[in-house]
Design a protein that fits this description.
The chain is an alpha/beta fold. The protein has eleven helices and ten strands. The protein binds pyridoxal-5'-phosphate.
């Protein structure tokens, strides 16, 4: 497996650390918990999209693009990381933000990721919930082409076969780290949304025959739909790399949608518990939309005995803590009501 055959720009801080969660492991009393710190990828406060953008932005530069277009929800971490790297490369950046949660309070609409998007100099426009965001991006792209620009369109979450290469590489990186310290990883758990992270991870893990199962905790879609999305993208990613599209068996794709609550970006009690637990036991910041729900799933799976004593469970921290500032009132803290 030789990823250098694909164009890539290097701006992530890699490898990200793999750390034990000693106090939480003791507190929960189950398996040994570890955390892979992809919240520390460096770019504009970090996150998982940076690994994907190393490959996507290299493709944009190769195609001589002068403008980047992408989309996400209002508090999109992907949009923020895209604006940051566009700024560094001197490219214009247009982001389309879908009003997916219906929240319009001051903090949600203007703080967190939205504040950083603007600091990075992006042009932002809002679209109503359930807009066809791909069609919206195409339309903007056509307008820009008519004006003589060369736009490069990145799908939501950077989740196509090019972006997923970033997580094929992360699978290699994590396996190498585990090998170096003789750590047997029994499960890898993470929050799954636009599917590129999980698709890249399963392709990388299968290509290496690592035997490390990947467990996605869905933050938006029902189990079946999420697994189908991951499976389709895993097949495309494997094919793109010259591997058999059947490399990853369908049953290796696991997503659990029990922790979504009322919907994408809508707070749940178990998310609030998870965010507070990591902050107060480990000094680590999760986020309300992705990793808070992902870690809530992990906590529940430990408590219900799905992950067992003696096993080593790694949580992939995919970033997003910036959006804590978009949800200051949900943690029931004195002075925030
Ligand atoms: C985008 C995102 C995810 C989900 O990754 P996908 O590749 O979209 O499935 C998880 N956590 C955070 C913080 C994210 O921003």
């Amino acid at each position: 497996m030789h990823l250098s055959r694909f164009p890539r720009l290097h701006f992530a801080h890699l490898p990200t650390p793999l750390e034990p969660l000693e106090r939480i492991s003791e507190h929960l009393g189950g398996p040994n918990l570890w955390i892979k710190r992809d919240d520390c990828t460096g770019l504009s406060s970090g996150g998982n999209k940076t690994r994907k953008l190393e490959f996507l932005m290299a493709e944009a530069v190769e195609r001589d693009a002068d403008t980047i277009i992408t989309e996400g929800a209002t508090q999109s971490n992907h949009a923020r990381q895209t604006c940051a790297i566009a700024a560094k490369l001197g490219l214009d950046c247009h982001i389309l933000l879908e009003d997916r949660t219906g929240f319009h309070d001051e903090a949600y609409a203007h703080n967190g990721n939205v504040l950083l998007d603007q600091l990075h100099g992006a042009s932002i426009s809002i679209r109503p919930v359930d807009s066809d965001m791909n069609a919206e991006m195409e339309q903007l792209g056509q307008q820009l082409r008519d004006d003589g620009r060369k736009p490069y369109i990145i799908p939501g979450g950077g989740s196509n076969e090019t972006g997923a290469l970033g997580y094929v590489n992360a699978a290699f990186e994590l396996t190498h780290q585990a090998n170096e310290r003789s750590l047997r990883i029994d499960h890898l758990v993470h929050a799954t949304g636009s599917a590129g992270t999980q698709a890249g991870l399963v392709v990388g893990m299968e290509a290496m025959n690592s035997g490390i199962p990947v467990y996605g905790v869905s933050v938006r879609r029902p189990k079946q739909k999420q697994e189908d999305n991951v499976y389709t993208l895993a097949q495309r990613t494997a094919g793109f790399m010259g591997l058999s599209p059947d490399l990853v068996a369908r049953e290796k794709i696991v997503a659990n949608s029990d922790y979504v609550g009322d919907g994408y970006g809508l707070p749940t009690n178990s998310m609030v518990e998870a965010v507070k637990m990591l902050a107060s036991f480990e000094g680590i910041l999760l986020d309300p939309v992705y990793t808070g729900k992902g870690f809530a799933g992990l906590i529940d799976l430990v408590r219900t005995g799905h992950f067992k004593q003696g096993e080593n469970v790694v949580f992939l921290h995919t970033g997003g803590s910036v959006s804590l500032f978009a949800y200051p009132k949900i943690f029931d803290l004195p002075g925030y009501n």
